[in-house]
Design brief:
Shape: elongated
Strand content: under 5%
Helix content: over 70%
Strand order of the largest sheet: 1-2
Number of strands: 2
């Protein structure tokens, strides 16, 4: 399998898995009439305070084990966000294998920018 095919399949698989996790989460929310101690009305309210800042990755993993719908939705979002990161990492590997220094450096810069945007910038926006 060529690297381009692996990158293409990783994007397809990432999006499909993300969609399935989110659908499972929504179904579980309706079946259980809520999630993570919140009622369906609280989750669906336009002015709901429930968002990704109200949880942690540890809570998501614990919630998935308990079949918590909101945790499945969060996990689907995590997979969706991780999909382009995996693509960039695969590209870096391919550029390294082909000894293409310029594109390796550019891809590393892109990866660093994505990671800063995900892990550092939100701390400054929320506070």
């Amino acid at each position: 399998m060529e690297v381009e095919d692996a990158i293409s399949y990783s994007l397809i698989v990432g999006v499909v898995v993300s969609i399935l996790l989110i659908i499972i989460g929504v179904v579980l929310i309706f079946v259980h009439d809520g999630a993570q101690g919140f009622t369906l009305e609280q989750i669906g309210n336009v002015h709901s305070f429930i968002n990704t800042s109200t949880t942690t990755p540890e809570k998501v993993v614990q919630g998935v084990q308990k079949l918590d719908g909101l945790s499945f939705v969060y996990l689907g979002l995590i997979v969706l966000i991780a999909t382009p990161i995996i693509r960039v990492i695969l590209l870096i590997g391919d550029f390294l294998k082909n000894r293409d220094l310029l594109y390796t450096i550019l891809s590393l810069i892109v990866l660093i920018n994505i990671l800063i945007a995900i892990f550092i910038v939100p701390d400054y926006i929320i506070k």
